[in-house]
Fold:
Amino acid sequence: MSAQARRNKKASGSRNFVLYTAIIILIVVLLVVINQVQKKNEGENRELSVAPSTESQPVLGDANAKVSIVEFGDYMCPSCKQWGETIWPQLQKDYVDTGKATFSYVNVDFHNQPSITGAVASESILQSYPEQFWAFHKALFDAQPTTNHDSAWLTEDKVVEVAKATVPTLDEAAFRASLTAEEPTKQFELDKALYQEFKVNQTPTIMINETQIANPFDYAAIKAAIEQNLE
Ligand code: CA
Structure:
């Protein structure tokens, strides 16, 4: 190899080095940008074209309220229990008790059979003892263990125990039979169709009319979305 050829090779080698370095820097910059865009989207509420229908769902509060709050929840979900204990009391006090908003709960079954047992039991109570629905709903979340919440605690016997404690006039045999009956199961299937329609992929998911709240534990964001709908 002549001296000229060696010089050319060396020059082309350093050109390649510069090129590869530039490409690597570009890739890193792109990855950082993509990551930040994703983070931004995760932190933003999602605006949908319609609010979820609350027909045949439990509705708490003044039916004429301008705002409809919908929780997609699961009795097996620890975050839902936490949401009910931390965010819900303030939300109820500020907006549901004051007649500004209604609150509805839609069943999701992300924890398989135990979720379904809880969901169908709640549909059965709603159907047969609507006055006691919210007491049962709260008591079932209260029954969720704070540790080892994935254990098989949500059984037929557990929902019967909770129902007996919250519905004084409970017909236990009829309630037990209803857990595999057609009507409450059909009601739960409606919920399933609803959460699939709204592409709910985590619980709790909170909707304020057509707005899906990015972080259900951000009370200020929930409040802002409600206030916007009250204007
Ligand atoms: Ca339902």
